[in-house]
Protein 1
Amino acid sequence: MSHEFTVESSEILIDAPIIAVRRDSVVMPGGTPADREIVEHFGAVAVVALDDDNNVALVEQYRHSVGRRLLELPAGLLDVYGEDELECAKRELVEEAGLEADEWAVLVDLVTSPGFAEEAVRVFVAKQLREVERPDAENEEADMGFSWVPLDEAAEKVLRGEIVNSIAVSGILAASRVAAGGGHTRDVAEPFEWRPQSLARRRGERGIVPDMKQV
């Protein structure tokens, strides 16, 4: 039988605006407990927005953790307790790309860093696009670039190491495979079972809303 990794105790080490760090004492095979530090996260959504010519909307955003600007998909935190993933994706597409879409589907779900973080991301594909006014941006987003890139070229940028954001890599390669007839999208009504709950539940119960966005 597989071992059941039960938690003997937990403590919050860091409680920051958009993440928390929790230490769990986990029972290992043989009965010995071991500490595991976990980054709690709200989860996020991202959007592969494709126009009629199969160009993908990409943004370029400064990421302080690596000290560089990265090509990425429009994306955002699920930082509203209980908010629907699709509604969040629609809002982020407007805020970061100035776009709305009439056709939506689930492209891929991913757990970005399961070795130490709860973060999970649902990536949507959006089509039948139209331009709308983009609201005023703040912080890193005030310096955000925007471009249309052919999907095939974006996939090549992934393979050349020019696109390294893991969410963008997954979304672009998945969209490229679907476009080539090698896969299918999923209905937006399919539950996002990987969505993290611990941080959102604790913040929601305390009525705390993050004051900064980094996704």
Protein 2
Amino acid sequence: MLKRVISMLNFRRDKTFPFAYSSLKLLITGPASHYIYQPVVPTTVPYYIAKRLLLDRLIFAPAFLLLFFFCYEHPGGNWADFQSKVNSSYWPALKMNWKVWTPFQFININYVAVEFRVLFANMVALFWYAYLASVRK
């Protein structure tokens, strides 16, 4: 099973991808996932559950997906190739993101303890990134 997931990921043999991807996760996605919901939409706000979910699905998801495409398509590569790939794959990937991640993020934001949210999201993300890699082909 693990070998199949790894083969589906089809990581580049390029040495810059692991750095770009880990930088994205370490500096942007991880801290935002862990710390942003409480200050932006505190629990005292009416309908905070729905507002947090909408914030995640309509603001964070499109932005993080675009950053993922940027890192995965090799930042030092041809800009026209990157733009072409985004034009052909971004919208289908975003729609699938909304379909797949919305129920998981609802559970994550509302029922998972804060200290376990990143872990929960990373477990789901393993399969999500396998899907993204297959879309990339």
Protein 3
Amino acid sequence: MVANSLRPTSEIFTEPLRPPLSPSFDSYVRVWTEASFSTYFLNSLIVTCGAVLIGTAVSALAAYPLARYDFFGNRFLSAYFLAGLMLPIRLGLVPIFYLMESMGLIDSLLGLTLLYAASGVPFGVFVLGAFYRSLPLELDEAARIDGAGEFRIFGRIMLPLVRPALASVALFQFVPLWHEFLYPLVLLRTDDRFTIPRGLAQFFGEYQTDWSALFAGLVLATLPLFVLFVVATKQIIAGLTAGMSK
């Protein structure tokens, strides 16, 4: 895909598997400027990062009492979040559309951000809850003896300890949201609000014979995920293996 993005379209069909004879970044420049890819990229960055930040924050707050406290309704709430993890959000496509329309959030990046944030909370609660439960309860008791309140225990003790899990939750929310196509297709109307998947669909229709530009668009859409995985590999492993027995 990278090699074909650096060669002209005529060369793609004659030498598709060989390195490009004369590499050129003209396709990337054309995609970034003529195809409004810079706008799509910025919209995806705003929506995805906003949704990940909101979803991770809500997940951390919700998972903490469910994992550390035994209170009336704990099992019911845990089952509620688990049901949200098991049932795909697409089952409620029509009700969600009418809800967004009643709130004036159709064709809005804010509406898409809130929807994405809500969709990631069940997974975040599931992962962070397991991580919270792996921490000894003596940490909470010692902090309370020293006079720390609940919010201070959460912010000063718990959050630093669950940092690997937070990174894993954020990453695993980021990846599917970056590639999400259905809700941008349903909720977004104007070109300057399209995210990358929605913009690429329109881009493929306009540039369907310019294969070099199409490959360049796919490379640009995939590059942030590749960089993110390389940077956060250690955090992913630490977050997903926390609490596992040897």
Protein 4
Amino acid sequence: MRYDLVIFDNDGVLVDSEPLSNRLLAGYLTELGHPTTYEDSLRDYMGAAMHRVHDLVGERSGQRLPEDFDEVFHARVFAAFRAELEPVPGAADVLKALVAAGVPYCVASSGSHERIRVGHRKTGLDAWFPDELVFSAEDVGRGKPAPDLFLHAAERMGVAPGRCVVIEDSRLGVQAALAAGMDVHGFTAMTPEDRLAGARGFFSRMEELPAILGL
């Protein structure tokens, strides 16, 4: 099927940020008395907006995270991004193929606009994503697995949900795309297929994506 809009998740799909951010999140939660392994963080928070961290910690412990939790966490993440972040191999080539084929695309991320921009500037992907192609859970208030973010991106791009395909690597993101009535292809570089149930198809290398999209 040829789609009218390709919607990319950001973390783990365009930028290789999931190992960095989940390692830091697990470490910070553990510091605060909420023991969390890297694997726990991937399972519970990968693909989610920050409110999910607060919600789950509150449900499980009956305690609230510090008021400055988001600020401290993001400062650590952005420092790591500026020092270490790399693009997902092949991501820029996929974007080149979409431009060459005249297929619109955008990014819709649970991360904040600042997080997206810091990562894109470090990896050089900012050249592909002007402001009008960047959508964040900040824009809608509810992050994945709610469909709001993907529906907002489709509306702003002027494309019906049924004509969109989402490229995701998280369980929550796949759920959000399906709830929005969109096709979704699961990127399995970090996430096993069984964690991305409901995806229309799966691929493990970005080099495979242009053919999947019929480019």
